[in-house]
Amino acid sequence: MSSKAIFKPPKAIRGGIPICFPQFGSCGSLEQHGFARNRVWSIDNNPPPLPGSSVENRAVLDLILKPTEEDLKIWPHSFEFRLRVTLAPGGDLTLISRIRNTDTKPFTFTFAYHTYFSVSDISEVRVEGVETLDYLDNLHDKQRFTEQGDAITFESEVDKIYLSTPTKIAILDHEKKRTYVLRKDGLPDAVVWNPWERKAKSMTDFGDDEYKHMLCVEAAAVEKPITLKPGEEWKGRQELSTVPSSYCSGQLDPSRVLQG
Questions:
Q1: What is the pLDDT of residues 12-41, one digit of tens each?
Q2: Which of 83, 103, 128, 148 is the most exposed place for a label (fewest CB within 10 A)?
Q3: Residue 174 DSSP symbol
């Protein structure tokens, strides 16, 4: 969370896990990242069970978002968005989004969990799991490139959408000897973003040097928008966990970090 985050709707909060729906970025006619992250959600105190999802010994919160009259003016589609947030005793955090088309006509959307990770030093961080993949570079008009190298490291601004990514991605923090493991389902893409120095200074809700201590790695569905027919439901899941890591450059066995 940025120290300068503004908690004043409809301003989006700089940090946490903003929900990008029904639009990621500027890929459409709506405001940046859509409107879901700027709305007040309601709590479902008696949520229906989610098939195949055990909540034993876990803290669970179910949130619901439905479009307001103002939302329907800018995006004329009726929907029900259920977000289940689950926290396990060991600290694993799971978010399951279920979006149902309650309209009489199909609609299409893009989506992302815009997750901000706290890191000790961005220049000492590696991201593993997206190497050798194709990506769209938002800094070059969404041109398509292929990633080179055995891991992603950071020396300047990065804003990439990796395509057809694996279900597990690791973020290795060398200084803290800690690895974040991101597991995802239903979300084929992964966005990697750090604004770096120049852009950080231009953002009023972000400290000038905070880019050094953050990294966004986002489970997403961007390249191929999702279309739901009336009555259909889409589900996208993200699980975040941390594991100790004794990472030394060139000595990591990614399969060991990403197993399980």
A1: 899 999 999 999 998 888 989 999 999 999
A2: 148
A3: T
